[in-house]
Fold:
Amino acid sequence: GDSVTQMEGPVTLSEEAFLTINCTYTATGYPSLFWYVQYPGEGLQLLLKATKADDKGSNKGFEATYRKETTSFHLEKGSVQVSDSAVYFCALSDRAGNQFYFGTGTSLTVIP
Amino acid sequence: GAVVSQHPSRVICKSGTSVKIECRSLDFQATTMFWYRQFPKKSLMLMATSNEGSKATYEQGVEKDKFLINHASLTLSTLTVTSAHPEDSSFYICSARALLALEKLFFGSGTQLSVL
Structure:
């Protein structure tokens, strides 16, 4: 079945460091890919998404490119801030949005 | 953006009692709502999918008689944990899917359930 594999954390970075959180997926068909973020004490929020191969999703300085050849959707940010400290979830859905599969989440802590 | 309100945010109950969690879509109609359970440092585990006006579809291994889900309107779904036990203690999150944005999920802020 469909699944998402996400790099395990926790990840601790200094402010302004470069961030990469790896995500690979297994899916039949042509899924849509997402990154969700969960700030402390809050629910999940959509960070960015890509719906087809080679699409790049971007938001708040974060980017991820849908790579069909490597079945990956790695999250990157060039310069992290303390306010980026959160748990990040990679996810995929089928085209109709009937099923969503989440990775295990990666906790990011950014220190000043 | 679309808002999903989930209540309560935190509940402590005694073993054997029942707890109801509400999930409301405040500014859109949610034809489908999902209920997840999140264990510490683990991913979201989909428990069930509920469509307005019909019975919920439960994932394998989820007891439907224990986790009662009702989706009586396009803006409200409830999860009732019946006869709660300490092992039911967890973080429960609902999400709603808008009719006009099928691939986008809007999440509630979650409910931390602690069963003593």
